[in-house]
Each structure stands twice: as C-alpha cells, then as structure tokens.
Predict the structure.
Amino acid sequence: MRISEETLENFSISYPLERLAPLERILFIDIETTGFTARSSYLYLIGCAYYLAGKWHTIQWMAENYSQEAEILNAFFEFSRLYRYLIHFNGNNFDLPFIQQKCEQLSLPHSFDAFQGLDIYRRIAPYKFILRLPNCKQKTLEQYLGIDRKDVFSGGELIGLYHDYVKNPTEFSENALFLHNADDLKGMLETLPILAYYDLFNQPVRAKKVQANYYKDANGHTRKELVITIATDTPLPKLITASANGCLLRGEDSVVTLKIPIYEEELKYFYSNYHDYYYLPTEDVALHKSVAGFVDREHRVPASAANCYTRKVANYLPQWDVVFEPFFKRDYKSRELFFELTDEMKKNRQAFSDYAAHVLAMMASTY
C-alpha cells in the first residue's frame, strides 16, 4: 500500500463550513475504482481531506495491487474514527455504497453508521437549470466557479493506467493516480461556495427591504410591482438571474432581489359552504341565506360552487399554494391564486419574509 499526505498551504475556503459541524470533525472522501460495481471491479484508492491545526490536509491510500483492497479499507476506517461528518460528491449513489459492498465482499466489519453526511451533488442537482448548468458533474461545477485543476485525466482513463501500474509500476503512473484523486478532493473544497445557492432556497429568509414600484412594460403600459430585498448569510459566488410566473430573481454577493407583479383588479372570493348561500344574478353576488331570505324569490337562486363568491377590487399578489388567506381567484376554475396586499400586511416584515420564501420555492420548483 502506498500512502500520500499533503498539507494545503495558503489554502482557504469562503463557505462557512463550520455551520454544519466543527471543522475538526469533518472528513471529505473520494474513491477511485476500476468500475461501477463492487462485485466486478476493484477499489484501488481512497482519498480524504481534513482540517487540523488551522490548515487543510489530504491523505490518500492506494493499493499497489488488487489484493490490497482490504488494507486500504482498514487504513481508511482506522483514520476516520476521529470524524463524525462525511462530505462527498455523489457519494450517496457511488462512493459510500461501493465501500460498504466491498467491505461485505471482503468480510470486513466496517460501516458508516456512526457518520452523518452531506452530498454536494444532491444539494446542487435540483438547481441545475436555474444555474444554467449542462449537468452537475464536479468538473462542471469547478468550471462554473472558475476553478483550475492540474490533473488532465478522466476517471475512466485512469482505469487503464491503474491496470498498467499493477503490472509495471512507474513514478509517472503513480503520480498521475494520486494527482487525479487529490484534485477531486481539492475541487470539493473549492466548490463548497456553490452551496450558497442551496442555502438561498432552503434557509430561513429575511426580508431586509420591501417597496412598491411603478414601471413601464414593453408596450408602454404602467405596471406595479413589489420589490423584496433579501439579506443572505452566505454570499453567492456568481450572479444569478431567473424568471418564472412573472416574477424576477436577481442575486449577487449577499443581496438577493425579488420582483413580483402587483395586480390591481377585481377578483373573487369563493365561499366553500355554498349550500348556505343564494346567488343574486342581477347584482352578481352571493349572500348568506340568513340575509338573502329577504330578497324576492324571483331575484335569487340557490348558489353553486361556481357562483358563490364576493367580488372585490384591491391590490393583489400571486401565490402558488394557499399560503395566505383569504385567497382570491379570477374565476372558479382558474388555477391562479391571489391574496390581498392589505395595509396590515404592509406593516408585517415577517409576512413579507414568508412570502419571499414562497416565491423562491416556486421559482426553484419551476426550473
């Protein structure tokens, strides 16, 4: 077994990783194999990154031949006993199951039961389209963030190189195998700032500033919009813009702005207990039977679900689930939901924070 250790001098990450767990308890892991399934391929390298004495370090265990799988697994699990939090890239789908299956295959008494984990891939994959990424491979995220790596080989190309190394070890092949894994480890550390996008859509939202603006649309018509400025705890590494359902999102550094259309029109509030109402066709309104009983019979009919409503002209904001009540609609069968922008809400900063979170969730689910 070959072991490589390195101290990453003058290396730092801008993402507040300590919010997840104490840095000294976090272990990054990445493996190299000769295939995708543990039964028919070999595990030949396990690499880890860890924080100690104010610096980041890497350690790697490589099997010099196919019979040293158990040796590198035992070395890894012995080293990892001091850690409780694993961070990896798509490790839930590949690295961790592969190691677990390999341990079972080799009758080794190891497991990940004592660990908590964070999969960078799983956290970012839902936002692939809103970030305009072609895929969520680690190298793609590195390119998105402008991260350069020394390694020029792909994981697939290294499979043949490892088989050659087993038959005829050379310094070049050994360095290339270690370098690829080391760059994967460093790349994981350097791509951590991309988790700021996950935080934006999943952490509690704080509305810092709220205002209503007037603007001219493409046809020169005057429109009204609500502008909510959000203060983020984690700076975004790159500018992000998105639009959905008439809403606009712009995020840069620690400032995120949402623009939502305000609709000034007449909408309808539909009563659910329509059996208790009469509909008055002439007035186009529904009245409770306790009141409508005084209306002449020829001017009233039993209300139905579709006409049991009250009409109101006001300023409205859109919503995509019933978050704020009462909710209004344009017509009974309309799927668009609205709620009134009342004077009371204008004084409620928490309500705007909740609404901003609702808009962000809509945008994330739309892409």
